[in-house]
Structure formats: structure tokens, C-alpha cells
Amino acid sequence: MLVLLLVALGVCGLQWAWPAFSSGIDDRTAGFWWRASPLPQAERRVVIVDIDEKSLAQIGPWPWPRERLAELAERLHAMETGLVAFDIVLPDAREGDAQLSLAARSLPLVLGQVLVSDEDVHFPPRVGRLAAPLDSPGCGPYTVAARGYLGISENISGAAAGHITPTVSPDGTVRGVPALMCFDGKVYPSLTLAALLRASDLPPTLTVTPGAGLLEPAWHIAHPQLPGISVPLGANGEWLASYAKARSAFISISAADVLQGKAPAELLRGSWALVGATALGIADAVPTPLGGTVSGVEVHTQLISALLDDRTPYVPRGERLGQVLAAAVAALALLALSMRRGRALVVILPVAGLLLALGLYGLQGWLLIEQHLWVGATLPAAFATLTGMGLGAAELAITRHERELVYNNLASYLPRSTAQAIAFRVPANELDAQHAELVLLHADIRNFSAWCERRPAEESAHVLHLFFSLCAQAVEEHGGTIEEYVGDAVLASWPRSADPQYILRAAHQIVRFAADLLPQPAADLEPLAVGVGIEQGRVLIGSFGPASRRNHTALGQAVTVAIRLQQLTAELAQGVLIGPIIAARLPRHLHRSQGVFLLEGLSEPREVFAALDEKPTISDHRMTP
Asked: Rounded distance, CA 611 to CA 517, Å?
């Protein structure tokens, strides 16, 4: 839950600080889905009449005389086109405006105009005149406020007009237009809406109604006499263009061919002719999801095609709620997966988060292509990805913590080096041991078994715990390792390179501590005492037994000698006895020969030495709590 909270705060903070991050990725993924699954049908209802390089070469350089534009409109009308719309702005007065006005009064002709809404433009232009405002609706939240304009020439009259102002995304791509723009209290429709009204010969009246359901758009634009056509708008009045059709699906005819009578009339008959420019000299190129240099007229062509097919994409009113629900479902799925536990989850959870993110983008593509819903997937996808990574990191931290607990507990039962060697590998049935030259110390409480018969188990356990603790402290303070606890005995080891005097000091410390701390039994029992045997030799040390129950121990003659020396301490009334090998490494004043003995279980007799306790060099021999 902490991971979910942190990820949610992180995603919300990123969206608040950098909102263009998620919207930019969503825009690009929408373009990817359109390019990946274009509609196969060719578009015959809208034809692009292209003022291309060929037209400039054969007709003349741009700008063309207004008479030439009027002639182009008349030739298109003669080919029985249903409408001629110019994606061109003609703001200044020029010769030939009269001929263009005459064509506009006799033909279904729509001219373009631009309204400037950019706040960065300090002195917005006001050139020409704004034409053809709507009678209704008035300005409202569904309109975009304009500060200036490039209208049509004052000398051109009788033509319908619509604005061609694009909506530019943060990445510079045109993904739609404002459907309605407001200037000086009047509302001006886009070129597509103006063309729809002019082609249907309808009065300039539109209705705007707010959406009701979560899956509906923020606004609907319709005309009372066109019940089958509705334009869905976003909260700010944006009209998104659908780029579901590839550029190759649209027919493009050179304007030169139309003016020279070479254009195929069957392609233009009954269609809408959109006149635009791709010639480099006219500079009417904009980036869209389908290309970096696309003619501006293609944007309106896509708008008209989607409007006629009722596949205009829009952002539903419940988009944010849908994103929250998608993130919640992803979180629940990842949480359910994390409940299974296991080291593999460290990899599985991040991969599952990434797969959920890809699934959300796939759902976004399906909603866009099939349902025409523009729903952002980046925020829930980022939440799913980061949650998977966070839960994986949490699982890794938990696993490492548990592993440390297991290792520390294992190290309390085994030598730390042995615990480290076996903690992180799978146990096996094979023998796992190695030879080593070690110094062995064996310490045991004499008379402890008889004492235990007379005392409660709790008291016996307390004495044994105290003895093991003081042995461990003494051995570890002098660089040794506790190999195992067996009954009431302790087996410790030092490497061959260890200073034997340190080992001897550890043995004397165990004896002194035991004499001070072990309880004195009743008068009818022999007193508790500790005996220590020390010898050096080659031993086999490791883990033995089946994989289901391993045992760590040390085996070899040196171990047997240390045990037998410890047992001999009671008979010789000595606290510490050492063998001949370790005695040879010590100064003579630290040991005294006790004679030659045949130790039990051994075939050869050997000399036994009593270790003499020199003046302690450790200032504080008290037990650590």
C-alpha cells in the first residue's frame, strides 16, 4: 500500500508539474494507431484540388489573379461538384474581386479566413473583414476567443466563409481545429461547418448542447435540419480530426488540370472540391500524425470525411474517471500477484506492470479505432509500470531482509563462514566438507549430568546458556570460531596461523569465568567445573547428512585428542590440558608436562601438558550482557 501511495503521488505530481508529458505521449500513440490500422476505403466524396508545383509552372506564380480563382471555381462547378471550398485566405483587396464575388453569388462557394487566438501575439492583425458569422449560438465555453483576424477582401461579397485556424499540439502537430471561434461577441464557424451549411443551403444557425453521460463528449454541435449529423467537441471547444484514413485514400487533382480541362469529370461529379496548396512557394504545409509536411487542406478533408462517416474522435467526459479505474484495476492485479510471494516476483512484477501498460495502450487503440473515443493511456500505464517496479523493489527488499534474517539465524547455529557458504545455495545429499589445519578447543562442564538430575530443567537450561555464552565470548574475543555445541560441551577452532598464546588465554578465561559464574551444587554432589582440551591437527570440516537434515561438524584425530584431553582434566586436576603439537608452539613457561598417556580411542601414547595461566592481559573479564 505504501508503494501504491507513493506511485500515485508521483504520477499526480508529474501530471500537475508537466501536463504536456502525458498528453504528448497520448497524441503520439493515437497517431501510431491510425497509421497502424488505416481505413481501407478510398474517399470519393471529397476531392482535393491541389495548387501544386505543376500548377505554378503551367498557370503562373502565386498569388494567382482573383479572376483565375474565379475561373477555377466556375470550372469545378461545371463538372457538377456539390461545393467548392478554398483553404486559402484572401484578405487584401485586388483586381478581380468582382469576378470572384460574381462566382460566389452564383455558386456554392466557401472562402477561408483566419482568427488569431494566440496570446503570444502582442499585436494581432485585423486585415480584411470577418464574414459569415452565425446567427446562433452566441459566445460560450464551447468557443475559442479570438484577438485578431485575417478575413476576406472588403470587395468580395456573397461568399460563405469559415475559419481555417488550426489547434496546434505542444509537439507542433495539428490534431484538429476550434469548431467555433468568438470575436467581438460574434461566433464564426470552421471551414468544415461553413461548407456543411452552404452545401445544404441552410441558415447559419447551430445548436450546442452539453453532453450528459460519462461516455459522451463535453458538447454536441448540430443543426435542427440535419438530425443525422452531430459534431462532438471537447471541454474547450476543440474539434479533433480523425486521421484514420491514409493520405493515399484521398483523391488529389492538380489545379492546372482543372483549368486546362484535363481533369476527369467523373471523379469530381457530386463531390466536394477542397482547393488547397502543396507548392513549396505557398508555404501551406503543416505537420499531422500522418506526416511532417502535409497540406493544410488535408486536415479539413479528414474532418469532413470523419463527419460524414460519424467517426469523429472526442474526449469523453469520464476520461479521468476511466483512467483512475484503469489504474485501480492494474494495481489490484499487481497486488494479487504480489500476494503469492517468492523470489521470482522480483522479475515478474515489473514485467507484469509493463505488460499491463502495453495492454492499456492496446485498449486505447481499440477505443480510438472502434469507438472513436480519445482516452489517454499514459497516466494509468505509467502508474502500472511504476507500481510493478515499486512492488518488485519492495519484494526485493523484503526478500533481502528475510534472507538476512535467515542468514543471521543460521549464523547463530553455525560458524558465520559456514553459514555464509551454505545459506544461499540449495542443499544436496552429497558430502560437503574439506580438509583444514586447525587448532581445536574442546570445553565441557564436569558433573553437569548428575547436577541436572537434581535440578529443574529451567535451571539447567539457564546454566547451559550461561556456559555457552561465556565460551562464545571468550573464543570470539580471541579470534576463534564456535564450530558446534554438543550436549554440555563446546568445540571451537582457530586457523593454523593463529597465535597459540591467544588460544591459551581464551581457554583460561573460560575456566576462570566458569569458576566465578557457575552455581555450586548441594553438598552431596561434586562441584561443577570446566575442563578444556586443546590440540592442533588436520581435520575434515563441513556438512554431513541428507539434504533434508544436514549437520555441521569437524572430524579428525585432532578433534579426538582435544576431547580426550578435556576428559583427562578431572583426573589430573587441571583446568586446561594441551597436546604435544600445540605445546611445541608455546613458550616453555606456559606449560608443564604431565607425563605420557594412551588416550582412550587412540593407538599411540602421547605426552600431555598442563597449560599454566599467565597474568591476564584483558582488563575486563566480566560477561557482556
From this structure: 22
